[in-house]
């Protein structure tokens, strides 16, 4: 099934009472693509992520992930099939060290979640996987600090390391640079680029930092008031008058 | 800060080694105290069965804390499974056979089955709703024990049974008349249950419980089946506390509805908080403080609860991590 797209969302709608947070949005992400989703505050970007990742089911529409219909499926099923996400507001295990945060993710991904014990070989394998992830995300020096005591940027990196521990084929990142300084943003951008260019991850990225978006994305989707406003290459989007009016106009 | 004894996985990191050493030190201290208690208890004005009572209630509080402190789910109805352990054990001894092990086993099964069924029913509830449903089920069991006079003795409780001596083949342990032997028998069961509990918490499964406590949303999106894990934690916790209940029946040679009642659930929660819910041994210390205060003050005034309440308020206000939680923090600093 490897010729199907990584993700195929057709006409999803999500309503909260009378509010239509996402309206008839479709999106196709190819394998190895880095797709950015942009849009003003309240445009429905996070809600759209929540639909894709199974946080709640859509009111209408269909979601095909890696050739499988996952529209109403539970979260663990999607994770098993290779979908991992981070959150706009960092979600980590604050009272545990970075290493233990990653360990839990590695063990769950290895199918050890219900295990009362591990063999020495299994434990060594887990430790190796943890070290490798800490190195890839360049957070090894802080591995024994409690995540809750780290700077915001490092917490986000720890969260990404946990997502990577799941060996995802599709990575969903919701505003990974939100609330970060210049240097931290730069580091995250570098990490995302490495994941995309060197490790060939398919990534969907919600982001407000336009430099980062235009620099990294293969394609960009623009949402406004829950609806799809435009979808194209960075050059298309930069030249699109609707987008400039609705979004870039404000930002500039 | 390792207010949790439980974080260290035995990884290769220096932090892990430090924590492993700390854990061994704690273990040595705890077991030295527990093993020698019958020797020094009389010297400090105590008596052996007071120590036994602390072990039993401490085990119950630790079992509750498996759920509260290490899974993050607060139950105010855990006396239900304790009480079922008490009645399960008492009923076997009273009506079926004079066998201490079978009594304990019956208590375990009765409390464990109830915990398994009710855990499955409530694993989707959270926070105050979870706590309320645990209370509701507890009321049901209390009502049954209270009303079913013919079987349970109703309000007056179930009498007319005693624990039976243990026949080991090569020797017979006199736990009926010899308080010290009975203490060591209870300590043996306590050690088994606590070892199982500790090993589970240090396992991958145990870490998923910490994950749920720390951040349920993150845990879910790592692919953990949250409801199943909460259900398992609830079941295990009810089994552990039912064993404590069985020991309680043996200790008192008596089973009464108050062992199933809300008051006891509240007392167990207080013991956990007193000692520190993020610390494995915290609830045992909490139980010791609670039982000793109760024993000492109630011999001077009927208003002992007032003083225990005062101590509780002081601890909560000034040592929010509990007595042991605070000690650990000190030592690490
Ligand atoms: N669980 C919910 N219940 C009710 N309304 C919601 C819920 N989640 C989101 N909304 C509403 O849906 C709309 C879209 O919100 P969403 O968080 O998806 O926007 P966003 O594009 O991610 O915004 P931001 O850039 O600020 O993160 C908002 O009006 C929001 O208030
Ligand atoms: Mg958002």
How many domains of chain B, as an integer?
1
* Total strands of chain A: 10
Number of domains of chain A: 2
- Average of pLDDT of chain B: 89
Structural topology:
The complex is a heterodimer of chains A (252) and B (333).
Chain A: E1 7-16, E2 19-29, E3 34-38, H1 45-53, E4 60-65, E5 68-69, H2 75-81, E6 83-85, H3 98-109, H4 120-136, H5 152-165, E7 170-174, H6 182-198, E8 202-206, H7 210-216, E9 219-224, E10 227-232, H8 234-239, H9 241-251
Parallel strand pairs in A: 3-8, 3-9, 6-7, 7-8
Antiparallel strand pairs in A: 1-2, 1-4, 4-5, 9-10
Helix pairs in contact in A: 3-4, 3-5, 4-5
Chain B: H1 14-40, H2 48-68, H3 79-96, H4 100-122, H5 127-147, H6 149-152, E1 166-167, E2 172-173, H7 179-201, H8 204-214, H9 216-221, H10 226-252, H11 262-275, H12 282-298, H13 304-318, H14 322-332
Antiparallel strand pairs in B: 1-2
The complex binds adenosine-5'-triphosphate (ATP) and magnesium ion.
Which short descriptors sum up this protein?
heterodimer, A: 252 residues, alpha/beta, Rossmann fold, 2 domains, six-stranded mixed sheet, four-stranded antiparallel sheet, B: 333 residues, mainly alpha, ABC transporter involved in vitamin B12 uptake, BtuC, two-stranded antiparallel ribbon, disordered N terminus, binds adenosine-5'-triphosphate, binds magnesium ion
């Amino acid at each position: 099934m490897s010729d199907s797209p990584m993700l195929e969302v057709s006409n999803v709608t999500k309503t909260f009472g009378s509010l239509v947070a996402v309206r008839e949005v479709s999106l196709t992400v190819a394998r190895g693509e880095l797709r950015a989703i942009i849009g003003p505050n309240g445009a429905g970007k996070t809600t759209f992520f929540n639909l894709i990742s199974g946080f709640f089911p859509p009111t209408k529409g269909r979601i095909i992930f890696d050739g499988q219909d996952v529209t109403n499926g539970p979260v663990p099923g999607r994770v098993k099939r290779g979908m991992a996400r981070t959150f706009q507001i960092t979600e980590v295990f604050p009272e545990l060290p970075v290493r233990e945060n990653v360990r839990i993710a590695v063990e769950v991904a290895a199918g050890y979640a219900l295990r009362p014990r591990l063999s020495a070989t299994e434990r060594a394998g887990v430790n190796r996987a943890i070290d490798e992830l800490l190195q890839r995300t360049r957070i090894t020096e802080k591995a024994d600090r409690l995540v809750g005591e780290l700077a915001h940027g490092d917490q986000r990196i720890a969260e990404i390391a946990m997502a990577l521990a799941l060996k995802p084929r599709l990575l969903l990142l919701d505003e990974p640079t939100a609330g970060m300084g210049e240097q931290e943003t730069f580091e995250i951008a570098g990490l995302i680029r490495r994941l995309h260019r060197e490790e060939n991850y398919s990534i969907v990225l919600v982001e407000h930092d336009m430099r980062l978006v235009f620099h990294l994305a293969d394609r960009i989707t623009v949402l406004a008031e829950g609806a799809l406003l435009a979808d194209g290459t960075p050059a298309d989007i930069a030249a699109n008058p609707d987008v400039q009016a609705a979004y870039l106009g404000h930002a500039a | 800060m390792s207010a949790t004894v439980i974080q260290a996985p035995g990884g290769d990191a220096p932090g892990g080694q430090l924590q492993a050493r700390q854990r061994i030190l704690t273990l040595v201290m705890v077991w030295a105290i527990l093993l020698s208690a019958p020797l020094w208890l009389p010297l400090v004005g105590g008596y052996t069965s007071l120590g036994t009572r602390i072990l039993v209630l401490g085990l119950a509080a630790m079992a509750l804390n498996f759920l509260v402190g290490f899974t993050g789910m607060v139950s105010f109805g855990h006396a239900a499974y304790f009480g079922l352990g008490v009645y399960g054990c008492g009923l076997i001894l009273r009506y079926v056979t004079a066998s201490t092990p079978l009594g304990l086993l019956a208590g375990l099964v009765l409390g464990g089955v109830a915990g398994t069924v009710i855990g499955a029913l409530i694993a989707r509830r959270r926070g105050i709703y979870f706590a309320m449903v645990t209370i509701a089920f507890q009321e049901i069991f209390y009502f049954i024990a209270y009303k079913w006079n013919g079987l349970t003795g109703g309000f007056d409780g179930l009498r007319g049974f005693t624990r039976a001596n243990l026949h080991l083949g090569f020797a017979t342990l006199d736990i009926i008349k010899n308080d010290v032997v009975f203490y060591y028998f209870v300590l043996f069961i306590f050690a088994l249950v606590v070892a199982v509990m500790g090993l589970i918490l240090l396992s991958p499964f145990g870490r998923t419980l910490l994950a749920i406590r720390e951040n349920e949303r993150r845990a879910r999106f790592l692919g953990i089946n949250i409801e199943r894990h909460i259900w398992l934690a609830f079941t295990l916790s009810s089994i552990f506390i039912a064993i404590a209940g069985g020991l309680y029946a043996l200790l008192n040679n008596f089973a009464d509805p108050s062992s199933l009642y809300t008051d006891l659930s509240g007392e167990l929660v207080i013991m956990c908080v007193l000692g520190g819910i993020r610390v494995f041994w915290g609830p045992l210390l909490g139980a010791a403080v609670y039982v000793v205060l109760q024993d000492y003050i109630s011999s001077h005034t009927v208003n002992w609860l007032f003083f225990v309440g005062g101590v509780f308020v002081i601890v909560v206000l000034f040592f929010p991590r509990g007595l042991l939680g605070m000690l650990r923090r000190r030592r690490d600093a």
